[in-house]
Amino acid sequence: MRRIINRRPGRGGVLFWGALPFLAACAAYAVASALRLAENPNDKLLPPLSNMVAAVGRMAFTPDARTGDYLMWVDTVASLHRLGLGLGVATALALVIGIGMGLIPYVRAGLSPFVAMLSMVPPMAVLPVLFIVFGLDELSKVVLIVVGVAPFLVRDLAMRVGEMPREQLIKAQTLGASTWQIVVRVVLPQVVPRLADALRLSLGPAWLFLISAEAIAATEGLGYRIFLVRRYMAMDVILPYVAWITLLAFASDYLLRRFNDVCFPWLKAGKGSS
Amino acid sequence: MSTVTVRDLWMEYPNQVVLERVNLEIPSGEFCALVGPSGCGKTTFLRLLLGEESPTRGAIELDGAPLVAEPGPDRGVVFQRYSVFPHLTVLENVILGREFQGSRLLGRLFGAQRRAAMEEGRGVLEAVGLGNHLSKYPAELSGGMQQRLAIAQALILKPKVLLLDEPFGALDPGTKAQMYELLLRLWADEKMTVFMVTHDLKEGFTLGTRVLAFDKVRVDPTDPGAYGATVTYDLPLTEKKAVGVRLQAVS
């Protein structure tokens, strides 16, 4: 009998074991839903799949009676717009401040204690401040995402730059590179994939901040809709919305991973079959 | 040309003297092997030559002018590891020096300039035996090939001084012999001054025209950091000057 650490599933096995938890969760939901519906056909807590499909049809493919909009798409566009803007600004800040802190001793001396302290401020605790300062519309939600995500990205990037072998920076200087040339030709190409990885890890927090801000003050958005229909216990809308958000987050994660694979082939060079 | 003069050099860290009273006069084109026990300041001396650190006292002069206190294109370097850029292909690694030179803003050449640089790079890579691996990434090369690449990369700007920090320390004996031959050939062609740190005495005597041994002459048993190392032996190996003879000694 071989040790369990040496036993590996085949290709079909990987598929099977990967699908198992999904199937189990679906089965558990179906059984629980059927049991509750058998007791009370109007039960709203665990609606059957048909109700959810109908709800999605209503939200996504039928114009709203009042505004004439397709609500789910309006919500999606609004949320993705805020998220994209917030993450974009956070990424830009991370590139400028993170590389500065990692590479230039004076910037590190000046900013590193401040950023370390700033990153400990709980973003949700300053949300009221953001609402007061930036108003209740778009800006405060974007700023919340930036405040929540940027310190992590900045510190992560500064650490990655700091970890670069000293030999590489010396070598670049002996090849006549200026500080700026070192940034664009040596540092940037090597840390952008790390930044993409850090961004993947911040997608979760970013959605958390977005939905929190939308729940409190918004007129459209995925988080806003979920908290709005909660008042009617409309689980048939909430559950598809949650699934949709999860799918969007998963897709962005996947795209960032592909971005690294496609744009930085050297990451995989020399590892395994290449 | 590239004469290196070291005048009464001291290097001190807090609570520790690393180098003391180092005086040297290295004529142009000399191949200096820096040998000595671990922690005796060979690498520190190389870092001073590189301009990565400044001496506490004394001065280093290159052709009579004080050494610029930061690394620059007049001094090429090859380290034991991490000397090449993992995100660039072999050819891109070699032309990088030309690209830095030719484009202040982007550090990137285009069109005819790029083709010229690539042509030159191909020539240099051919000379170090990497002509068939132009589009590979360093991670796909063996240790010896990576060091060849590092040497080619350092040589494209034709530095006056080439600094080598245990460049062959991680290579197997067969590869080392090939590298010795390559290095001597390039040194004879380019006529630059070479400083090579090595912990391998045999390597030092095989390659060098001059062996500089670093050691401490004074030791305080109660305070090991009280005195620093200096050049205890400065051996010119004149009878081996002829490169042909030394190339034979290698093979």
Low-pLDDT runs of chain A: none
Give the oligomeric state: heterodimer
CATH architectural group of the largest domain in chain B: 3-Layer(aba) Sandwich
> How much β-strand is present in the residues of chain B?
25-35%
**Total discrete domains of chain A:** 2
Give me the number of helical elements of chain B: 7
Notes on the protein architecture:
The complex is a heterodimer of chains A (274) and B (251). With 274 residues, chain A is mainly alpha-helical. Chain A has two domains: 9-45; 59-264, MetI-like (MetI-like fold). Chain A contains ten helices and no strands. Chain A has helices spanning 11-39, 49-61, 71-103, 105-118, 127-134, 138-162, 166-174, 179-216, 222-229, 235-263. In chain A, helix 5 crosses helix 6. Chain B has 251 residues and is α/β, with parallel strands linked by helices. Chain B has two domains: 1-74 and 159-251, 3-Layer(aba) Sandwich (Rossmann fold), CATH 3.40.50.300; 86-158, no CATH class. Chain B is 34% helix and 25% strand. Chain B contains seven helices and ten strands. Chain B has helices at residues 42-50, 90-102, 111-127, 143-155, 173-190, 201-207, 243-250, and strands at 4-13, 16-26, 31-35, 57-62, 65-66, 75-78, 161-165, 193-197, 210-216, 229-236. In chain B, the strands form two sheets. A six-stranded mixed beta sheet of chain B has the order 6-7-8-3-9-10, with helices on both faces. In chain B, a hairpin with a 2-residue loop joins strand 4 (57-62) and strand 5. The longest helix of chain B is centred in the last third of the chain and has 18 residues, at 173-190. Chains A and B meet through helix 7 and helix 8 of A and strand 6, helix 2 and helix 4 of B.
Short key terms for the protein model shown above:
heterodimer, A: 274 residues, mainly alpha, MetI-like fold, B: 251 residues, alpha/beta, Rossmann fold, 2 domains, 10 strands, globular
